[in-house]
User: What shape does this take?
Amino acid sequence: MNQVRKADPNNKTVAENRKARFSYEVLDTIETGLVLTGTEVKSLRQGQANIQDSYASVEGGEIWLINSYLPEYLQANRFNHEPRRRRKLLLNKREMAKLSQSVDREGMTLVPLKIYFNEKGRAKLLLAVGRGKKLHDKRETEKQRDWSREKGRLLKERG
Assistant: This one.
């Protein structure tokens, strides 16, 4: 009945932005493709990417991932890539228009949540449309998290 599913080696998270959900109120998420060079893909497969301080920007009708860090692939020698270069995101026109309107009109921000490989082995980016939280919102989030943790401990103790 219950089948144990093995973890697919292709479908794994490479980099995750854990601060994003704390700093931003995530309203919508969308899966995007990334335009990468061969050495960037090999570097991603080693799992050393960092998207903590990165963001996405709409420029010239295209959406770009800015300030993401993919370290150089050591075996590539002179064919290596620049670690902090801007990377183009792949979306269809309707999705790009929707994201650019929400950023322009409503003052939202495009925040990358995680980079992962899908079941086909392609590198994907989970992009969120979010609104920045104020300090009191962050405190409220921390209170709720602490309370749910404490509630779980109490329920575990009492049975």
Residues 12-133 form a domain with the Small Protein B; Chain: A; fold (CATH 2.40.280.10). The longest helix spans residues 135-158. The chain has one domain: 12-133.
